């Protein structure tokens, strides 16, 4: 069977490869655009994928990882894999926000209970959702990694929603989360992710929320004293393939790449089942004070907001289906 090869084409932003057939062509370069930093389990999964792919192809396939948003932010990366101008990517849920917002509920407050519940979601509803996404947007989800539970950091001890009252709180541009934190009494302030550290350092915002791994990796502990274990959202990194590109390569290469992603996922799951257990301790060792808040008080204020979005945005019954797993 003649091999299909990827030839790099000069693309203004991404420089990703597309297919070119020819008997003499033997090598393939695969770019992975990542919005995550080059450390921690989320990045290590990509490194393991690269190692397995290059070993199993005897060096014929080269994998190049572009971390820290080098090929663009989440929106640009999702657009690139959907259009086929980059082969693979690692990102969060921007693809769902863009193409299937009715399924974003699993990364909203107090839907996922714990890490076991999150894995169960991906084995059931998440797998079903990924199939719909492939059909709708041409994005294949090949693997996932748990980033951890999102926790609040601040320079004020926060135990109840009343302690958030009046705090300028950095949030991503996620309407549901903004509404929920307004219900807590905070003043939501949208700040682009690359600017969060300086916003905390300069006092532009008073608090923020992210998984402990992100908090540690991006050194937010240098600007914040308290780590509030709200665990209000469980975040996932997702490793994806452009279907437009994938359909141009041989079935053998498709199988090799998919198996490498799955084996890399299994490897990271085994050594880092729940990264919170490691990174909470790292943050405490770095000087942060861990606070256990009244989670039920936060959950009660979030629930009316969530019920409203059940009616207006999310797929009917989806939140309950996930919570009942």
Write the layout of secondary structure elements.
Layout: E1 4-8, E2 17-21, E3 28-34, H1 41-56, E4 61-66, H2 74-83, E5 88-91, H3 94-99, H4 115-123, H5 125-137, E6 139-154, E7 168-171, H6 175-184, E8 187-190, H7 196-202, E9 207-210, H8 212-217, E10 226-242, H9 243-246, H10 251-271, H11 276-285, E11 289-291, H12 295-312, H13 318-323
Helix pairs in contact: 1-10, 6-12
Plain-language structure description:
Helices cover 42% and strands 23% of the residues. It is globular. It has one domain: 3-Layer(aba) Sandwich (D-Maltodextrin-Binding Protein, domain 2). Strands 3, 4, 5, 6, 9, 10 and 11 form a seven-stranded mixed β-sheet that branches. Strands 1-2 form a two-stranded antiparallel ribbon. The protein has 13 helices and eleven strands.
Q: In terms of structural class, how would the helical and strand content be classed? A: alpha/beta
The helix tally amounts to: 13
**Over the alpha carbons, how many angstroms does the gyration radius reach?**
20 Å
How many distinct folded domains?
1
Low-confidence runs? 1-25
Shape: globular
* % residues in beta strands: 15-25%
From the 3D structure, determine the CATH topology: D-Maltodextrin-Binding Protein, domain 2
